[in-house]
Amino acid sequence: MAASDPPLRRDAERNRQLLLRTAYDLMASAGLDVSYEDIARAAGTGMGTVYRRFPQRQDLLDALFSEHIDTVIELAEQAARYDDAWAGLTWFLERQLEIEAKSRGLGELLRSRNQATALVRRAHERMTPLVAGLIARAVRTGQLPAGATPADFAAAHVMVGGVMDASRTSAPQMWRRALRIALAGLRHADLSGDPPDEVIIDHLYNDPKN
Amino acid sequence: MAASDPPLRRDAERNRQLLLRTAYDLMASAGLDVSYEDIARAAGTGMGTVYRRFPQRQDLLDALFSEHIDTVIELAEQAARYDDAWAGLTWFLERQLEIEAKSRGLGELLRSRNQATALVRRAHERMTPLVAGLIARAVRTGQLPAGATPADFAAAHVMVGGVMDASRTSAPQMWRRALRIALAGLRHADLSGDPPDEVIIDHLYNDPKN
DNA sequence: CAATAACTGGAAGAAAAATTCAACTTGGAA
DNA sequence: TTCCAAGTTGAATTTTTCTTCCAGTTATTG
Q: Is residue A180 a contact partner of residue B185, using CB atoms and an 8 Å limit?
């Protein structure tokens, strides 16, 4: 981010990488709410080291997930170039969910209510217009029913993600079934009434919790 | 539950009712994780009173929600008597979600991963065969695709509930749209492959979290 | 091989929630 | 009316998690 900072001492940089790898692995299986103490213990360092390098949890999350989030943005851009709009939408949602399946932490970040990061918000700003374009095209070609909105697509994402979180350990493939249900639902539901506000997408991904 | 216990003193019974009402209201808007201190403060009692009456949080949850859960079981029984199996299923799911919409706490209890209570487990045991019967009938009449299982219905419940939790404050009607998507999805998705295990229903509702 | 600035570990402090308890109050039986 | 078992209170204690801090270590520079 800030190329201006002086480079880290070699041992410090080594520790930083070690901490990032350790934290990523822990969060991949246990979610974002891993304590700094757990990270330090798993990496074999002191807690002070974690705090020195990542004073705010946000700093850690940014360092951990920014490249993964860029990957998802690229997926959206790639999807937007599909000739077949519906194929682009399904491809994008499935790819994104596959990534989330590999890392519970990333899934929580991309979907879950509490951890509103600038990172994720920016990603949504980038992706929403692309998705909106695909949806508009799909509606025009009759692949999606009239009235379908980006919020419905976001809802589908949240829906499948919820099943994924709930069945991660016991039925790690169940989310694919839920995805089939959600996609078929988007195509066949009556979505003509009371279109949800654009703003709702942000809220779906990031309800202020209470 | 235990009719053997001596009845409470009048003032104690009054406090008990007050605490239950207060706790229910707090949990309806803030979810199950309300602290005993908050409950005591809102009810105007000391914390000790809450602990004396409900030594385990489970005791409180049982007292608060058992009748509501019985209501949901009755819904399932009523749905099972529908001639039109699909109509029964949609009616049941919508009623259940409407109840959850009124109380975030009850929704978390009926769906969420952590609070596995005997209460809820028993309810699922009662309801699953009824839902299974409806689904089998609906498949027979072609209202649902071959391969549809109770786990798919449970997944639909979890999916819509997830949207409800995420949009409760910002878009309190969004879950109805998600419900339309989920229901249309159940009817139109290809559910023929890899049928999920029966057991998965329990896990969907109650993943051991990690 | 100093000198020193950066780095490290983990104990100590702070904050928030859960739980206990001893002194005090009160309903209701006798 | 008296008495005491039941009930109440809220401060104190325990538990858990987060955060700070400093005495001691190590890489790097001249």
A: yes
D10 nearest neighbour residue (CA to C1'): B46
- Local confidence band at A210 (pLDDT 50, 70, 90 cut-offs): very low
Q: What are phi and psi of B139, to 5 degrees?
A: -65, -40
CA atoms within 13 A on the CB side of A46: 4
Q: Which residues touch strand C (CB under 7 A)?
A: A 6, 8-9, 11-12, 15, 44-49, 51-53; B 9-11, 33, 35-37, 47-48, 51, 55, 57
Which tens digit of pLDDT belongs to each residue from B59-102?
999 999 999 999 999 999 999 999 999 999 999 999 999 999 99
Burial class (CB in 10 A: 0-12, 13-18, 19+), B170: middle
Taken in order B177, B178, B183, B187, the sign of the CA dihedral is positive
Contacts of residue B177 in chain A, CB cutoff 8 Å?
A: 152, 155, 189, 191, 194, 196
Provide φ and ψ at B157, rounded to 5°. Answer: -60, -50
Burial classification of residue A209, based on how many CB atoms lie within 10 Å of its CB (0-12 exposed, 13-18 middle, 19 or more buried): middle
- B115 neighbors B64 (Cβ within 8 angstroms): no
Entry pTM? 0.92
Nucleotide closest to A53 measured between CA and C1': C7
End-to-end Cα spacing for chain B = 33
Measure A8 CA to C2 C1' (Å): 23
Around Cβ A122, how many Cβ atoms within 10 Å? 13
Using CB atoms and an 8 Å cut-off, which of residues 58-97 of chain B contact chain A?
A: none
- Mean pLDDT for A51-63 is 94
Residue B197 is which amino acid?
A: D
Long-range contacts (CB closer than 8 Å, 24 or more residues apart) made by A190-194? A190/A145, A190/A147, A190/B180, A190/B184, A191/A145, A191/A146, A191/A147, A191/A148, A191/A149, A191/A152, A191/B177, A191/B180, A191/B181, A192/A145, A192/A146, A192/A147, A193/A147, A194/B173, A194/B177
